[in-house]
């Protein structure tokens, strides 16, 4: 089922105002400035464990490229969307090690597991 795009109601008192509906492009931070969090998650996944990487700042294409690189290095599936990377399985230590190796020095483990 396709999601419908909501139309926003907007009012301005400026007679020369023009609505710009283009999304803002996020600027990519260099790896050493990224503050990534790695955690194990089971919520809404039927009890299956996944490794979740959050906190990425940059365009969606770069997020997907990093997700693809992580999934290939771990040899598992997953996805990258909505500002987070999902890697199937309990791979937190391996993902943390890979990110630090690739220059993401401010990466931390979060959560209790």
From TrEMBL:
The record's Gene Ontology biological-process terms are: formation of translation preinitiation complex; regulation of translation; translation reinitiation
Instruction: Identify this protein by name.
Output: Translation initiation factor
Q: What residue stretches are annotated with the SUI1 domain?
A: 43-103
Q: Which family does it belong to?
A: Belongs to the SUI1 family.
Q: What is the lineage of its organism?
A: Bacteria, Pseudomonadati, Bacteroidota, Saprospiria, Saprospirales
Return one GO MF term: mRNA binding
**What is this protein's gene name?**
eIF-1
InterPro entries in the cross-refs:
DENR/SUI1_TIF, SUI1, SUI1_arc_bac, SUI1_dom_sf
CDD domains reported in the protein's UniProt record: YciH_like
Reading the lineage from the top rank, the first entry is Bacteria
Keywords of the record: Initiation factor, Protein biosynthesis, Translation regulation
């Amino acid at each position: 089922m396709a999601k419908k795009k909501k139309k926003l109601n907007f009012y301005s008192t400026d007679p020369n105002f023009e609505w710009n509906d283009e999304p803002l492009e996020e600027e990519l931070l260099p790896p050493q400035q990224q503050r990534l969090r790695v955690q194990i998650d089971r919520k809404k996944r039927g009890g299956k464990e996944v490794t979740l990487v959050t906190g990425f700042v940059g365009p969606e294409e770069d997020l997907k490229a990093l997700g693809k690189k992580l999934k290939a290095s771990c040899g598992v599936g997953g996805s990258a969307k909505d500002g987070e990377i999902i890697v199937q399985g309990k791979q937190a230590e391996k993902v943390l090690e890979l990110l630090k190796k690739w220059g993401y020095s401010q990466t931390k483990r979060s959560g209790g597991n």
